[in-house]
Design brief:
Elements lengths: L1 H24 L1 H12 L9 H10 L3 E10 L3 H14 L3 E10 L2 E11 L3 H9 L4 E11 L1 H27 L3 H33 E9 L17 H26 L3 H26 L1
Parallel strand pairs: 1-5
Antiparallel strand pairs: 1-4, 2-3, 3-5
Helix pairs in contact: 6-7
Length: 286
């Protein structure tokens, strides 16, 4: 029994030492392990189907949509889009308007909370007289978000370790080296946190591109004869034609009249020598 008690005492001492070392160096890992062990307990509250539904609700989705409409007054519709976006806690990030009068168009980029995405789409479509088309794209970024969160947690732990080593450093060379390493890791951590914040903003706020234009003009001309309906109408049309012809002739004469002297000089320069040469020839023959 004494021979067995000595190894048992050594084993107890080794276990105690390993427990102290793990509590001093891997405290963060122990917390992370505890959190990971506690997380799966939530789905046990309901049935198996309820657990699957809870997992589906935790998906991180990014919604992007386009909505095309027609209305007689696109500018007024654009103003109503602003009011609708504000009523859902959203914002208009871009507003481009073209044309006026009988034809106009407006294109707006609207950011709406993702929780109200479907309801806001219907509300925006109802602002115009006619909806001509819509598209909805859904992007699942759950894996990307989880990877960024895990990387940030790992990078944060490494930053804390370097800070602890920096506090314990005594030589100038070690301090300088640790400060450089800490600066690099903090920069990487800040970049990762910025990426995660941008992704979370895309998840929280959906993007809708809303376009409203004036409807195209309808062709109201009737096929068939479209000329005068009576003798008086025909006489009036004929007189209008004569007046138009005389107007065209007068315009042409007005354009050509300034060139008349020049034309006379050119013709004289051509025909006078010919006439003089013919006359001399006739005299020589006589």
């Amino acid at each position: 029994m004494k021979l067995l008690s000595i190894p048992a005492a050594l084993l107890v001492a080794l276990i105690a030492l390993s427990g102290c070392a793990s509590s001093g160096d891997d405290g963060g890992a122990g917390v992370a392990q505890a959190d990971s062990e506690a997380a799966p307990a939530a789905p046990e509250e309901g049935a198996e189907g309820g657990a699957q539904f809870d997992v589906a609700e935790q998906r991180e989705l990014v919604y992007t949509a386009t909505l095309d409409t027609l209305d007689d007054d696109p500018i007024a519709v654009a103003e109503r889009v602003w009011a609708t976006a504000e009523s859902y806690g959203g914002v208009v990030t871009a507003d481009q308007r073209d044309g006026s009068g009988e034809w106009a168009s407006a294109t707006l980029t609207v950011r709406i909370p993702s929780a109200d995405f479907a309801e806001a789409m219907e509300a925006l479509a109802a602002l115009a007289e006619e909806e001509t088309g819509r598209t909805v794209d859904t992007e699942d970024v759950t894996g990307q978000a989880r990877d960024l969160e895990d990387t940030i947690a790992t990078k944060s732990a490494s930053v804390e370790r370097v800070r602890a080593l920096l506090d314990e450093a005594s030589s100038i060379d070690a301090i300088l080296e640790l400060e450089t390493e800490l600066s690099d890791r903090e920069a990487e951590l800040a970049s990762l946190e910025s990426q995660l914040a941008a992704l979370q903003e895309r998840i929280a706020m959906s993007t809708i591109t809303y376009t409203v234009t004036s409807p195209p003009e309808e062709d109201t001309e009737e096929a068939g004869y479209t000329g005068p309906d009576s003798f008086v109408d025909g006489l009036g049309a004929g007189w209008s034609g004569v007046v138009g012809f005389l107007r065209v002739v007068s315009v042409v004469l007005g354009i050509l009249l300034p060139f008349t002297p020049l034309a006379v000089v050119v013709l004289a320069a051509i025909f006078v020598p010919l006439w003089y040469a013919r006359r001399r020839r006739a005299r020589a023959e006589a």
